[in-house]
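It is worth pausing here to work through a concrete case rather than discussing structure prediction in the abstract. The textbook approach is simple: state the sequence, then state the predicted structure, then interpret. We follow exactly that order.
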Amino acid sequence: MFSSYEVWFLTGSQHLYGEQTLLEVAEHSAAIVQALNASGNIPVKVVYKPVLKSPDEIYAICQELNTSRACIGVIAWMHTFSPAKMWIGGLKILQKPLLHLHTQFNRDIPWSKIDMDFMNLNQSAHGDREFGFMMSRMRMRRKVVTGYWADPAVQQQINHWTRAAAGWADWQGARFVRFGDNMREVAVTEGDKVEAQLKFGYSVNTHGVGDLVKSIQQVSDAEAEALCKEYEDSYKLSSLLTKDGKQRSSLTEAARIELGMRRFLVEGGFKGFTDTFEDLHGMAQLPGIATQRLMADGYGFGGEGDWKTAALVRAMKVMGHGLKGGNSFMEDYTYHFDPSNQMVLGAHMLEICPSIAHGQPSCEVHPLGIGGKADPVRLVFNVDGGAALNASIVDMGNRFRLLVNEVEAVTPVHDLPKLPVARVLWKPYPDMQTGCTAWILAGGAHHTCYSQNLGAEQLEDFADMAEIEFVLIGKKTNLYQFKNDLRWSDVYYQINS
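Step two, the predicted structure:
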């Protein structure tokens, strides 16, 4: 997924210091790029570009990177003093995310050898402040990473930013399909799709369920049976769904639905989708295992027509690509209010991604209770404990808000023999009362993307790239301060609009 992406490394200087200094600047810059690529800590290729010394050179490189399909962002570093008025033209047209790397080539001061030639060459502490002022003066959102470039902690911050940039790049021109409308009378799954396309770069359009049914009907018996065999090889199959099981036809129908949906998504160039149990005309059952497996392959999904969550799930899957753990559509379902062990049980009717499963999922069929269709097939599993987060994008009317709650997932200590869905338990930070109250105060949706492999830093970087509000509920959240922060955000966005 990252093989076609690049981040361009731009180094600023000027002609004032002479050709020898500029040669050394170029050598140092190229050495940093080579080391970053060799470190294995940056998931995309870092591309060295010649040292920039004039307004025309800066403007030209910004024009070039704006039109480059491969370039998903820019790392900028001022090795020497690069007068920032030179950067105005280029920064004004820059359309890609920017990371300002505040570093220097040498880690240590050479105490016994330092002279003015060394000072003129190695003055990032000076030059980066000039560059930083101009971006602040222009009110540009950007990531600032400070520290020695070879430090693993610095490279980890760059890693986080590049992953966010990959998710942002993936949204540009992306297409998401809604099979039917959203669940009737539900507020949070609605939103301004035109504003979303202007702000985020992706489009959302509805196709009638009949269009999907037509694709499902084109699946042959042999194709469906081959996928059933794959189910048998991949999961613990319920006896009712085996070759001679009484509900084998349900598995075959589930396979047809998956193959038909997959074909529809591929042919339409879609990166995610929504459906709703209230609009299944012509379908035998609500997509369960189909949705779960499509998510596992990287598609975004949102239940009940929730296109904002579908897009977020896709972006977070891109950001987390190659990392241990997974990302899934999720819903806060019910609470455990035991004073000594308060927890949230997260689940959904069917559609939790097996990328977050602990152990081998079980393939089962059970009644759904709503929707008025045949009992759907689904994968049932628990989720392991560990650090995680829930993220939600909500439309606040005058802006979009990305809300994140850091949580600690809990390995289940009790069996849930009668709960026929995938599920996860977690403890919200900073505690159950504060975390849940803050979520309600911030208008957080009941649908989220649950992540085992992303942190708040990547999501904050992503929000900055999208130029939307970012709200964090974490270990240090205090409700008094949190409410004030929300009020200040309202004032800021009213003024800014």
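Step three, interpretation. The longest helix spans residues 19-39. The radius of gyration is 25 Å.
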